[in-house]
Write a structure and sequence with these properties.
- The chain is built from three helices and no strands.
- By secondary structure, the chain is mostly helical.
- The chain folds into two domains: 30 residues, no CATH class; 46 residues.
- It is elongated, with a radius of gyration of 22 Å.
Length: 76
Amino acid sequence: MDQNQDRFLDAQSPYTLFLILILLILGTEKDLESHLDNARNLILETKRSIENIRGGYQTMHTSLMSFHTQLMNLQK
């Protein structure tokens, strides 16, 4: 395993303990599949939102750089 996987599987890691807690809670629920489906949808929508924010930021940055270049050309 690589170094990142070793860190996530460490028994003393708070992430591992949190994952165990979540799995225990979900294991006691009768509608486990629906909870997992809701969690999956939440993660996918969050990912999509972050991708949109990143795309918007990159577009804004490109526009600002273009504006800056045009402004510098006007000053020459």
